[in-house]
Amino acid sequence: MKSVVLWILLFNAISCSFSARILAMVPYPGKSHYVFVSAILKALHRGGHHIVEYSPFPPSKPLANYTHVEVHTEFEKKSQNWTFDQFAQILKKSDSMWPNPFEFMDVWHNMKAICEETFQHESVKKLINSNEHFDLVIIESSFGQESLLVFGNRFGAPTVTMQGFSGIPALNTDAGNALSIATIPEMTLVATDNMTFVQRLLNLLSITCFLLLYYNYQLPIQDKILQEYYIQDAPSIGELVVNVSLYLINSHPAVEYPRPYTPNIIPIAGITISPDRTPLPKDLKQFMDDAKEGVVYFSLGTVVPVHVLPEKLLQAFVSAFKKLPQKVVWKINLDSIQNLSKNVMLTKWVPQPGVLAHPNCVLFMTHGGAFSQQEAIHAAVPTVGIAFFGDQPANVKFAEHSGIGVSLAFDKISEETISTAINKVLKNPKYKENAQRLSRIFKDRPMSPADSTVFWVEYVLRHGGAHHLRSAATQLSWYQLALLDVLAAVVAVIVILCLVLWKLLSLVFCRKGQKNVSMSKKKN
User: Fold this and answer.
1) What's 164's DSSP letter?
2) What is the helix (H) or strand (E) element at residue 136, kind and residue range?
3) Residues 434-491: pLDDT tens digits?
4) Model's pTM, two decimal places?
5) Alpha-carbon dihedral of residues 485, 490, 492, 493, nearest 10 degrees?
6) Which of 36, 305, 423, 430 is most buried per CB count within 10 Å?
């Protein structure tokens, strides 16, 4: 028995000796983003690594080898006090059939302020001037935080980027990955991977516009932030961007259209779905257990301010739910709503994966956020998608295209449209069958997303940044990648050959003409 204990202690000692010290600089205050970030950091922490995290979200309880430093910004206060009018303005910008790459400029503008405040934060200044040692730095650089890549340079550590949106063109160009313009729609173009000629044209124009803005607007802004707020010498943003070792992205063929990836891009969609689910509260469990006809779960995520919706819209849902034989679990930040029927339960918080995994959950009414849709697919629950902005319209379009749900336009919401959408999904078994099929695909992989994350991060650590994973495409300019220089050379050669041929033919015909003239003179 003693020998077994000694072997266990020895194994733990060896494991600890290989643990890395990882700096996570993640100041963005979006809760949905942090769900993804937190899942990655927790997986690495469980893998035996020491995490030092700078973020607005403290852990629920202290953890050994997990240091949290709170970093708050003004944007956090603004995003917590939305009015319905502000929300409607954002929705109006997104409500178009045309792609809008300029939508990212709003994100970049917010990220500029967040990055500036982060560098001015006293704890961050102290970190920059410290003698701390880190083996790895993790950030969300491709979500408008490129200047934070300097922490990898500051501590001489490889950098890893996390990205909740896989469809951002900048991520692919930074990583040296193919854009696949003909088959993969840009996020603001709501289309499938079977695009029409017009959609492919719009996709080309949108991605080109995005990249022009990225290289001529966003990166110079981030460069300026470093010049103003980072007092030490640092490489240019361009150099920092192409030196990222690994990209951990929220992607999988079961939750979005299949696309190619270079070896430095690792899809880990599903990492937010923990096998150790939080148990349902007793009253919620009882409510769902007693639902003989099933349960419709209604939640519009953490960003959409449902509680400030006009009373007319709230009552449309109330009236539609009243007619259902199913029970309804409605996640909303309200204690009560007028005229609510007994088959509806209001709740301000639920462990969503647990609700969706309940055998009586038959439908998920969702805003189409990436993590909500992934949790629905994982649980094989069909959806009614009410998309608003960001990646939501594209996700709801994917759900429609995959046959796991239908969409309900926000500006078309009424008692009738809500009832029609719900009944369409519940009364047609194909939606449930397709959800079950995608669920099997989503779960069928060689290792869990958490294990994959730990393996590849440790791979980068073992190989000193794993530069061999990076494509040489990161070193080429945009016109070289598009082979425009080669095309220009080919066109130039063809033009020169045509000119030479034309000149030769001109000389031949000219001489022949002169010979004919001289022959005719002799005859005369």
Assistant:
1) S
2) strand 136-139
3) 999 999 999 999 999 999 999 999 999 999 999 999 888 888 877 787 788 898 999 9
4) 0.87
5) 140
6) 36
